[in-house]
Amino acid sequence: MLALVLLTGVFVYLQVFILPHTPRFASGDQAIYLHHATRMLHGELIYRDYDHFTLPGTDLLYMALFRAFGIRMWIPQAMLILIGVCLGVLITVASRSILPWPALLLPALLFICIPFSSYLDATHHWYSAIFAIAALAVLMNSRSSGRLAAAGVLTGLATFFTQSMVLLVLGFAIFLIWEWRRDRRPRRLLLTSEAALWASFLATISACVAYFITAVGLKRFFYFTVVFVVKYYPADWFNNWRVYLTGRPHLHDYPSWIDIPAFGGIHVIVPGIYIFFLFWLCWSSRGIEEGLRRRLVLINTTGFLLFLSVASAPAYTRLYVVSIPGLMILVWLLYSWRGGPKLMQLLWAAVLVMFIARPVFTQLRHKEFLNLPTGRTAFFEPLLYDKCAWMLQHSHPGDYYFGDHLVAFALQLKNVGRVPFLRPTDYTRPEEVDDAVQALDKFHVNYVAWYSGLNTETQGHRHPEGDHLDPMWAYLHRHYRPVVTFSNLDQIWERDP
């Protein structure tokens, strides 16, 4: 286990830091939560002072880290190392109940080297995954009341980061019913088990959200975490089922070639492996030891419910996060199949190749560096480098700014709107546009980032009436002028003197 921890830590470090210790630029969805955490650190509160649809776990975590270490670019990258190590250990602990040595290491190494390394974005999904797999590991060998209570607590913590994780506790509850029917035990034992699970879950999530409900009111809390998610979140194509199979690596983009195994493999495995396992359980599982059967059913149930938690918007990144139980089932099926050992050798070879190729590729890849207010940072994307370099020359930490949460966090600029960016769909509500316009006027914001897609993207398929940006567009034309246009036609507008 110590060797696994050290190897995983070094492997991830060499992908998120450039030797000797320069962090990569924190792009992707993690920048939203990093930006929110800086606002919370300065006294603002989610749902009251800024809008977002997830529960506050990720914002709180990063705020605590910023308070302890300062607002630094290395923090999310260091957290990715911790996430990778924690998940590697937890997967191995859970696999120990179904696989012998050394096969029990394969699910963890496959996950770390392939899907995890293809989505190095320290966003809320990964933190939920840690608690979800911890809950699975707790229940693998026993479903005593104490272990069920612990699993309820862990699932409550997972839900505090991503509310759709409530499906996981439902999956555990369904498994308990299946196991009870199989044992033909008294009903009171089932009720005791369900009570231990649900009571601990409800107590945990209630304790986590109580302060926020008190601070902003139940109605507002419910609107952002439930109503908005159901009614407006799917307005963007990448937040509904249309995102499935998009974002695949392209042959002309050679840096993305290394992600082909993750994209292809995970789309085949999730959710196909869970359906295949159910058929196998019904028709080909005779002679399997009863305890092992139950552990495999628990893993399969967990994996399928994790898949359902992202099924409404099955982007490849979300599928990577929920792929862990599928990899465990895959390795066990191969281990148990007569011809499986040869295929397992291929998987071991893939792990070895990725373990060498990914760090070497990251360290040797072309990059640029900037000394930002959040620390010296390495850039792999020329566009992000150009944006940060330009704003670094034209702003100071603490200046008001709007439109780009990545740049706002990196340069410690103050976002003036309730939302960090705008969308030409119902995802951005009319009141948020009005608030942004009023804030630009109130604070006389000098620079506004304008994403080119705000003018050219088609409107949301589900809400074609959802483009509410006309007031912002009109205000920009009256009071601002474009001063720089980047390679992808994104612009920065400067306020007229």
- What is Rg? 24 Å
What structural class results from the helix and strand content? alpha/beta
First-to-last CA distance: 62 Å
Proportion in helices: 55-70%
Shape annotation:
globular
Mean pLDDT: 92
- Please provide the count of β strands: 9
> Biggest β-sheet: count, sense, barrel?
5 strands, mixed
Ranges where pLDDT stays below 50 over 5 or more residues in a row are 459-463
Biggest sheet strand line-up: 6-5-7-9-8
With helices defined by DSSP (H or I, 4 residues minimum), what is the helix count?
21
Strand content: 5-15%
Sketch the topology as an H/E string, one letter per element.
Answer: HEEHHHHHHHHHHHHHHHEEHEHEHEHHEE
Q: What's the structural blueprint in terms of helices and strands?
A:
Blueprint: H1 2-16, E1 17-18, E2 22-23, H2 30-41, H3 57-69, H4 74-95, H5 106-113, H6 124-139, H7 145-161, H8 166-183, H9 187-216, H10 218-231, H11 260-269, H12 272-283, H13 290-310, H14 316-321, H15 324-336, H16 340-364, E3 368-372, E4 375-379, H17 382-394, E5 400-402, H18 405-411, E6 414-415, H19 430-443, E7 447-450, H20 453-456, H21 470-479, E8 480-485, E9 491-495
Parallel strand pairs: 5-6, 5-7
Antiparallel strand pairs: 1-2, 3-4, 7-9, 8-9
